[in-house]
Amino acid sequence: MKKLMILAVAFICFSTLNAQKNDVDFNTTSDLKMVTEYGSDNSEINDLLSFQGIDYMKVDFSGKDLKGKSYHITVKEIWNGKVVNDTTVFDSKNIGIKHFETINDSILSMRIIARHTGNNLRVKFKFPRFSVTKDYDATGSEDYSLRNLADESNLQIGYNETFYFLAYILPYEREDGSKSWCDVGTSGDSIEKWGEKFGIEHYLLFEMKFD
Question: How far apart are CA 136 and CA 139, in angstroms?
């Protein structure tokens, strides 16, 4: 019975993200919008992604004020409720190619591919003409899930200020043995304190800024 309950919770959370597209205007003070598509429209590809433990999402930012802005992604590695590292994943201003330093259109598209490998988390940010891949220390658990925080918790996004973007998390383990990623990803508040609130040993918190 316990195993069935765990599977049910996992299925419910996954089904809300699988092959789903969300189009939300998060910030009423700017024209910045974000469209997120989870997984694939092809059920067979989704089966393969699930079997290989791969998280996949497509994200499009749009807004007339995006053109000419640079973009910067950072990550906080949080262990046992404490930020142990806060590093840059990618900064377009330092890429070394003038054409890529700023956004030359009103849309920025990216794909994010993530997978747990051994005791590491590998995350790839794939842009139209280049990609960035990073590896991070992790626990041995295979229960990590990549969540779009801005989308899932309906957080505010905007220009010229850092906003929460993605989180690569372990689930909240309830007293009955069931596991839930949704309880964590949709909680919204005190994101850097999830380790304490939910008893999560480790997770990655990605932030983004357009300026």
Answer: 10
CB distance 130 to 163 below 8 Å: no
Length of the chain: 211
3-state secondary structure of 13: helix
pLDDT recorded at residue 25: 47
Give the model's confidence band at 27: pLDDT under 50 very low, under 70 low, under 90 confident, else very high: very low
In terms of DSSP H, where are the helices of 42-180? 43-52, 149-152
Q: Mind spelling out the 3-state secondary structure of 118-143?
A: CCEEEEEEECCCCEEEEEEECCCCCC
pLDDT at 16: 41
* 99 Cβ contact partners less than 8 Å away, ≥ 6 residues apart: none
Residue type, 113: I
- What is the pLDDT averaged over residues 186-195? 78
3-class DSSP state of 210: strand
DSSP single-letter state for residue 171 = P
Can you name the residues that pair with 62 across neighbouring β-strands?
33, 107
Residue with the larger pLDDT of the pair 25 and 74: 74
